[in-house]
Amino acid sequence: MRKIGGLLCYAAVAVVSKNGEDLFSRHSKESYLSARGGSDASAIEQLRDRFEQAKNHGGDIALDDVDDLCTVYLAPSSIPNSGLGMYTTREIRKEESFHLREVGVALRDRAVHSTGNAGGDATKLLNQYPWSNTVLTHGIYETSMMESLVPGIGMLANSHLGLVNMRHHDPWKTETHKDGTDSFHYTESLTMDDVGRGSYSTHGHVIFEATRNVAAGEELFVSYGATWFDAREDRLGVIPDEANFIEADGILERFFRQNKEEMKEFELHRQYKLLLDNAEQRVEDASDKDEKRVAKKVRAALPNSVMDAFDVLRLGSTARWSAKDSVRDVDWLKEHGACIDNIRSYPSSLPNAGSGAFSTRSIKEGDTITTTPLITIERDELMLWGRNESGEQRSQELIGHQQLLNYCYGHRKSSLLFFPYSPVVNFVNHGGPEKSNAEMRWSTYSYSKSDWLAEPLDLMKANMKTGLMFDLVATRDIKRGEEVLIDYGGDWEERWQQHMEDWDSGKTPLDDLHNMTNYGNTSAVSELNLNSIVRTVEEQQSDPYPSHVATICLFNQPEGGECSDGAGEVLCRSRWEPSFDATKSKLCDIISRRTIQGRDWYTVSTNIFDKVSGEDMSLAVEFIARDAINFIHRPYTKDQYALEAFRHEIGLPLSMIPEQWLDLEGDELYEWPSDNQESE
Ligand SMILES: C[S@@+](CC[C@H](N)C(=O)[O-])C[C@H]1O[C@@H](n2cnc3c(N)ncnc32)[C@H](O)[C@@H]1O
């Protein structure tokens, strides 16, 4: 969705719509407030408890705060021609965390490693969905060019810039040692003995929160940023942003002050036509591109007839009028929607598997647990190709796969992969034939485009829309609190067994993974962040930090120049304010430390090299406080970037894949231990 290559960025837009406030009519029950998760610390405590319960009760967990009835639905979006959207049937209070935590799957340096087809090619469906790295905070430093896919609200919720009600929750803004995404299982249980290391995302804990009160029945909207829409004007038309809707509201307000309803109808029409003519003239008269764009968007926000303008009055704003059904009747949602909150993520009951999806309600055999749209991805797009010797061109050497492969469904005989993106569905783990209690099927939901199963492969690859869907169906009765497991298939199982054998025997190429210095432990990073003192570069010579650790400094550039030589210490200090905006953080070296009035202050030097201008923008900064310094993983040292980590798609039975999509022998993809074995 938003940004590609730093072009567009996720802005934490705090849009407060009057509509939402007005519609928020009744106070909800207390459990609902307690369910908002409270502080992150208590959320982690809760998770710890759940983990203990999971371990002690054979995987089942208690879910005291779950509503009996479904609270999140997939249903047609209220934005015309925008496919499906996501709706809540219970009110969500401003700043309340959305209860379904998500996984964030990082995409690594696609422009460098992908084939010509991918990485920046705007015609690829996959390229419509990644968030800029600021959503997975500190992701900025994970790799050179990082983007991420965040299912649930991060992919399924549409964007209406005038009705935004959800945004990514950023604990790192106030607690610099947190990156806002890491789930506790990651810091708790991931050790060198963990054979699952790197095979699942370390961002298993992405949280969204409400930017304003959200009414029961309301569609959930995030901001993709205005520039995302500007870049797609050809395909999507002119899409107003929040300011344009507000301006249009002002124009209508003036119109209705001057022209009363009791005026003669033809006079009203005439006056309104004049209003529209003026709006169009403004587009004509605009002196530059930006002005023209604003004028076009304001015009697009205005209704085309005076009758519709009266409708705006009734609904309260042009934004609300442009998506009339953005607050749907809950009964309508029950009838037309598909329930998508029957599962939540908690630490898996399986060893080495990271998080899992747990049923929040009792499900009967044959019932649909959740329904998910899919994006189709070509296998090539997830391959990591090396570089030639000069580093300028891609080589023919396949060096690995994007971690996203592990979250995709497919069959080795097809180059087509499917990535589901309903909430929590990506946490469903492999139970093998014995433990599985569910399976993925092509969806029977009325909005699933099942006729696409007859489409030729080329058309599927070129498709810029989503349409195919999966249902996750219970294959036996599932208790509330039980982990939902499917069978990833024989190919997956075989590769996993091979991976475990290689791991146990300490065989190469897994040596890198065993090597602490290369893919270091996150607990070490978290612990350093709790230390009050940061060692200077000189101190580190005799007392080094682990090599996977780097320091970033978060501070605001002073207005009106740097701390000059002549400036006194106090002035310097007041100028270099810590900032918790990760987008402004910089990798930095700690040069010296001084204690003034009992408080430690640091001189740091940032090392920034502007890739675009080629300019060395390194900066020496004096006097920043400890809380403006943060320990993070050095680029490429998080587990997901270990090239040798386990990689395999989730297997679909051969019988599910239409014959015309079977374009591969399949054996060339991985070094198959048993090449000729036909696996379902
Ligand atoms: C679709 S993801 C499932 C969610 C994942 N557990 C997480 O925490 O994000 C698939 C990955 O989960 C892990 N996984 C799933 N089932 C597993 C199992 N039975 N044993 C070990 N790892 C498993 C593997 O790393 C696999 O590549």
From TrEMBL:
It comes from the Eukaryota. It holds the Pfam family SET. Residues 70-225, 341-489 form the SET domain. InterPro entries: SET_dom, SET_dom_sf. PROSITE patterns: SET (PS50280). This is SET domain-containing protein. It comes from Thalassiosira oceanica (Marine diatom).
